[in-house]
Design goal:
Length: about 350
């Protein structure tokens, strides 16, 4: 039997924040990062929390470390919120989701509604049961996956994307394409995730270059693509790009989407050795008007990455190729142990992963 389930309510558009007004008078914890708190954007969120008792947690940092999440969870448990507003990119949303989860074990109320307001396009975390945390001591990044991490409400207001720096638009946009492409060929794909994944891929493909150029309408489309891709991969699963991006991100602290942008073409070529998977990639390429083959898709992703000024190799991100080689076994083991690996459509061995790492170094 196959199943497809949606839990999160979604509001989108220029007045999407109105969805927060149902929290009037409640105890609300707002979780975000220092930049967003100081940018003035947070004020738009706070203005909607009429009559609420608000506690702000603004210490989120990119790739949230476990230690920080545990500290935040303690604060959350002491404050005992009825709702949490997670405001920011994937890092803030994941941190908030994990803080609620850990906070409940520390005495916070069992029922806390999470309202996720993404400010990047994006991770899709506002509609997923994933929260990616970093164990800084071990240099490992790993996803927590549990239905209880699904937000109650996603609030998509494209106005928040206006000031996103070009490099962040490129990184997060390539993350969207990778979510859509990986979900489309993943082991758990079905007709529902295909519809979401294909639409997300085509929307992102058409709009990412203009969003990178600063076009606000294209940025709004990217926010929708990010959300659709999140729903697709939440049900279908991801693949080797993400398991390797987690392994490399935990060790070398390169932005998540930038790693996926480098990895995706290698993974497409690896997975395309299975004919039925190659046909799926060809269908995605065709839907975007590209040469309808897996190689055509991989080539087009390589070309787009360069157009967005992103690096081709880890050495261009300040990583010594010798270190990648020396850590080959460790990185391959981390990638294979990652929760995104089992849904990749072709089984990979440590040797296969090390071959990709050699090309990537
Ligand atoms: N939960 C999921 O389903 C999921 C999926 C993919 C990735 N992730 C995780 O999400 C994290 C990455 O999230 P991200 O790519 O959104 O980046 P991020 O949240 O780390 O943010 C990157 C930078 O952009 C800034 N920023 C965010 N919004 C901005 C805005 N509107 N204007 C200006 N600057 C802004 C932030 O302050 C930060 O400095 C990684 O840890 C990744 O592993 C989670
Ligand atoms: Fe991702």
């Amino acid at each position: 039997m196959e199943q497809f389930q949606l839990k999160t309510a979604i509001s989108f558009g220029s007045d999407a924040l109105a969805a927060l007004e149902e929290l009037a008078g409640q105890r609300v914890m707002v979780i975000t990062d220092d930049f967003l708190a100081k940018s003035g954007l947070l004020d738009q969120v706070l203005a909607r929390l009429k009559g609420c008792t608000v506690e702000q947690y603004t210490d989120v940092v990119p790739d949230p470390p476990l230690v920080m999440v545990a500290q935040g969870a303690r604060k959350l448990a002491n404050f005992k919120p009825q709702a949490v507003v997670a405001f920011g990119g994937g890092s803030a949303m994941d941190c908030a989701k994990a803080m609620v989860e850990f906070g409940k074990k520390m005495g916070a109320p069992g029922e806390i509604k999470v309202y996720a307001v993404p400010t990047t396009a994006g991770t899709g975390s506002e509609v997923t049961s994933f929260a990616v945390l970093t164990d800084s001591e071990k240099g490992v990044k790993y996803p927590l996956v549990d239905d209880s991490l699904l937000p109650h409400q996603a609030v998509l207001d494209p106005g928040f994307l206006k000031g996103v720096p070009q490099a962040v638009t490129a990184d997060t946009g390539m993350d969207v394409l990778t979510h859509a492409a990986e979900a489309y060929v993943a082991a758990g794909a079905n007709v529902y995730t295909d519809a979401l994944g294909e639409k997300a891929f085509v929307l992102a493909w058409k709009n990412l270059p203009a969003a990178f150029g600063g076009n606000q309408q294209a940025k709004a489309q990217m926010l929708l693509a990010s959300n659709l891709a999140g729903m697709a991969f939440n049900a279908a699963g991801l693949g080797l790009s993400h398991s390797l991006a987690h392994a490399l991100g935990g060790r070398f602290h390169i932005p998540h989407g930038r790693l996926n942008a480098m990895l995706l073409p290698h993974v497409i070529r690896f997975n395309a050795a299975r004919r039925e998977v190659a046909e799926r990639y060809a269908a995605l390429a065709k839907a975007c008007g590209l040469t309808p083959t897996a190689r055509g898709l991989a080539f087009a992703v390589d070309r787009l990455r360069r157009k967005l000024g992103q690096p081709d190799r880890l050495s261009q991100c300040g990583v010594d190729p010798k270190e990648v080689k020396a850590r080959g076994d460790e990185l391959a083991a981390a990638a294979l142990a990652d929760l995104c690996a089992p849904s990749n459509p072709r089984d990979a061995t440590a040797q296969d992963i090390k071959a990709i790492l050699r090309e990537l170094a």
